[in-house]
UniProtKB/TrEMBL annotation:
Residues 153-174 have a biased composition (Basic and acidic residues). Residues 153-238 are annotated as: Disordered. It comes from Brevibacillus invocatus. The lineage of its organism: Bacteria, Bacillati, Bacillota, Bacilli, Bacillales. This is Nuclease. InterPro entries: SNase_OB-fold_sf (IPR035437), Staphylococal_nuclease_OB-fold (IPR016071). Keywords: Endonuclease, Hydrolase, Nuclease, Signal. One of its GO terms (molecular function) is hydrolase activity. The keyword Signal applies. SMART domains: SNc. Gene3D superfamilies: 2.40.50.90. Residues 1-20 form the signal peptide. It comes from the Bacteria.
Length: 238
């Protein structure tokens, strides 16, 4: 009788362990899930209520409190809604499965193998946003963004139209980060390093106190030089 009781208890414990861990995010693990609704171009909610933020990408804002809808934000949000709503997806995690807001951080794959994070960048719906230690696909995303920029896809087409409307001298100065007023926006909390892309497509970061820092218009913000370097930026040569 004891043997049967022990066997039953062992089976119950194994079953409980499977139920409690199967759907829990683990570093470098993966889970299957169903998308309930899309919140923004890079964020969505699962059928169990969990919110997911896609790793490595940043689409223009549409739902940020007290902020206007950013250019191409609606297009990015609509694209993600069409792609993910009610779809079964595979979520693959990197080193850190959650952010400080307790959202899941994931690489997202559709059942046909489409890598959603990469597609958003390559089709011009998102910029890259690399935050260590989740950098497994940083190089792939950087290559996808370069392709989107070269072909003026999505939001890059909007920016290209604006730059073509400027005189050549003004374009060069804006790209070099000189003689320009930074956008009227406060840096994200804890991120003071400015990332700028010049007219040659070179990604350069500027730390507070450096020669061109105050005149540089940031395209991305970083907390550390290592973070900027991981996103493909380099320090200025002078």
């Amino acid at each position: 009788m004891k043997r049967y009781l022990l066997s039953f208890l062992l089976l119950a414990l194994m079953t409980l362990g499977a139920c409690s861990s199967d759907n829990q995010p683990k570093p470098n693990g993966e889970i299957e899930a169903t998308v309930k609704r899309v919140i923004d171009g890079d964020t969505f909610e699962l059928s169990d209520g969990e919110r997911v933020r896609m790793i490595g990408v940043d689409t223009p804002e549409t739902v940020k409190p007290n902020s206007p809808v950013e250019p191409y934000g609606k297009e990015a949000s609509d694209f993600t809604k069409k792609l993910l709503t009610d779809q079964k997806v595979t979520l693959i995690f990197d080193v850190e499965p959650r952010d400080k807001y307790e959202r899941l951080l994931a690489y997202v794959y559709l059942s046909d193998g489409t890598f959603v994070n990469e597609k958003l960048v390559r089709d011009g719906y998102a910029r890259i946003m690399t935050i260590p230690p989740n950098v497994a696909f940083a190089d792939l995303f950087l290559e996808a963004e370069r392709e989107a920029r070269e072909h003026d896809r999505g939001l890059w087409g909007l920016e290209d139209s604006k730059s073509k409307a400027k005189p050549a001298k003004e374009k060069d100065e804006a790209s070099a980060g000189s003689n320009q007023t930074p956008q009227e926006q406060a840096p994200p909390e804890g991120k003071l390093i400015k990332g700028n892309i010049n007219s040659k497509g070179e990604k350069i970061y500027h730390v507070p106190g450096s020669a061109n820092y105050d005149r540089t218009q940031p395209e991305e913000w970083f907390a550390t030089e290592e973070e900027a370097q991981a996103a493909g930026y380099r320090a200025p040569k002078r």
